[in-house]
Amino acid sequence: MKKSLSKRFGMLFLTGAMLVSAGCSSSGKNSVSSESDSSADDTSPITFSFFGADASPSWNNMQDDVGQEITAKTGVTINAEYDVGSGGGQTKIALMAASGDYPDMVYGKGELNKLVDAEAIIDLTDLIDKHAPNIKKVMSNNMNRMKYSLDDPAIYSIPTNIGVDQQNFDVTNGFEVQLRVLKELGYPEIRTVQDFENVLKEYMSKHPTTNGLPTIPFLLNADDWKIMITVTNQADVTTGGTNDGEYYVNPDTYEAMLHFKRPEEKDYFRWLNHMYDTGLLDKDSFVQKEDQYKSKIASGRVLGLSSVEWEYQDAENALKAEGKDEYTYGHFPVTLNEQYKDHSLQSVGVDGYGISITTAAKDPIRAIKFLDWLSSEEGQVLRNWGIEGKQYHVENGNRVIPDDILDQKVNDAANFTKESGIGLYSLFGARYGDGVKDSTDNYYTTNFPEQIIASYSDVEKETLAAYNATTWKDLFPSEDEFPVKEWGALYNMQVPTEGDYQVIFQKTQDIIRKRIPEAIMSKPADFDRIYDAFIDELNKAGAEKMESEYSELVKARVSLFTDKDVQ
């Protein structure tokens, strides 16, 4: 791979023509021309090594049903290593970049830029063009959204964590309240943080203990980066922001700033300070580890959360496995007050983390063909539905999940995933999103209204009916109320790995993770002083310079995605 000598904001970019070579190994011995097709229709046994930046506790070394079928069809076995805990691959990928020791394929998430700068990632443009008709078909109208940046239009990853033409049929985030709480209180309206607080307070006064343990009205997870999910991002979401990570982007000017600087967010954190002071927010929220957080949820004594389902799903699955459906949670579009709208359903378009092939890959053509087969209709149906006759059958031309299988999938999710493999291979190929139908007029995924409703417990259906809703989405502002984000998903925008940006960003992260909990746990009389000092500290650390650089990257991304000339 060629490396440009030009720099923008300290980031190394590739410039000039697209690469003719598919790439070379870190030893320089694996240069592969994409014009030769030695692996055409090759299904002989081959093993690819892989690292995934997310944890995958149900990974079963492809001994599950789907994995065995993938190997039978392609000859490929994946020797996978996944990140443990919630590290997001940061430590492992930093070691890769420093050592030059890479797996064949990698799902790098937000750390991809480190591997690109280390010249570890192959530009997939030529490989996709010559050997991946299914990927080209799926991504046909979104090829620009696979490109790394305006300055470096190479394709270093295939988006896999979001489906093309995705339709949202349900919502799994917001503010969560236990279903038993809602029922006992007569299914109250929950629209603002005050509504949410009132519900928790009323139920707590009636039930100070749950199963012999102290009831916990409200619980947050501030362990490591999860503080963003349950604590800081919510300040943005509840005040009409569009959840762009640590930043708020002005939709008219594309100027970005750390979202904590918005005055309305200070009022949200003031509310958390009030919840902490009155004892409604669990006192351990900022000192406990994630396993302690999940253990409390699994005990059934946590009335309310502020999160997204994937973040606490292990604990909720434990409740379901015990038959405690009434202890699981409903989702509400809570905002600071009624002047704001929750933007959960605003579309980012096709943009997301993806899978990459490294320069160490023993056979890049075979690798892209493998990913391409999994991107085919057959491959996508297998990944999403499983094995016909086992996880689903066809009735009158329609794919149907039998009731006993659906029960396992919903109420014994961990074991079902480990045994079936459904959900374990979503990273390995491009895919269509929920609501898209295949050539048989069936949905590619199992997330469509009828199937979603069928997966709800009776308690959940009863709750939704009380709110005149069929899915949780019905309670949220609809997708058509918002424009598609012109800048896509900013968590996937590559930022500088060199220069001042990373230094300043880390300083601001350290400040945020220290001062936000400090402000929330302070005496109410001290809150303003601490919060104002927090903002001053961010600026002294260089936040305004960092924001300026980030704004330019956002503008360049808008230009790449929309062809607008954004100044």
Description:
The protein has 20 helices and 17 strands. Among the domains are: 173-348 and 449-490, Periplasmic binding protein-like II (D-Maltodextrin-Binding Protein, domain 2); 494-562. It is α+β, with helices and mostly antiparallel strands and 567 residues long. It has helices at residues 65-74, 90-99, 112-117, 125-131, 133-138, 179-184, 193-206, 226-237, 263-277, 290-298, 309-321, 364-374, 377-385, 403-411, 413-420, 449-455, 458-466, 500-521, 527-540, 543-562; strands at 7-8, 11-12, 46-52, 76-82, 105-107, 158-159, 173-178, 209-210, 213-214, 216-219, 247-249, 256-258, 302-308, 329-332, 354-357, 393-395, 398-400. A hairpin with a 2-residue loop joins β16 and β17 (398-400). The two termini are 31 Å apart. Helix content is 38%, strand content 11%. α10 (290-298) crosses α11, α18 (500-521) packs antiparallel against α19 (527-540) and α18 (500-521) packs across α20. Strands 4-3-5-15-6 form a five-stranded mixed β-sheet. The chain has a four-stranded mixed β-sheet with strand order 10-13-7-14, with helices on both faces. The model is unreliable at 1-32 and 34-39 (pLDDT under 50). The longest helix has 22 residues, at 500-521.
Topology of helices and strands:
Layout: E1 7-8, E2 11-12, E3 46-52, H1 65-74, E4 76-82, H2 90-99, E5 105-107, H3 112-117, H4 125-131, H5 133-138, E6 158-159, E7 173-178, H6 179-184, H7 193-206, E8 209-210, E9 213-214, E10 216-219, H8 226-237, E11 247-249, E12 256-258, H9 263-277, H10 290-298, E13 302-308, H11 309-321, E14 329-332, E15 354-357, H12 364-374, H13 377-385, E16 393-395, E17 398-400, H14 403-411, H15 413-420, H16 449-455, H17 458-466, H18 500-521, H19 527-540, H20 543-562
Parallel strand pairs: 3-4, 3-5, 10-13
Antiparallel strand pairs: 1-2, 5-15, 6-15, 7-13, 7-14, 8-9, 11-12, 16-17
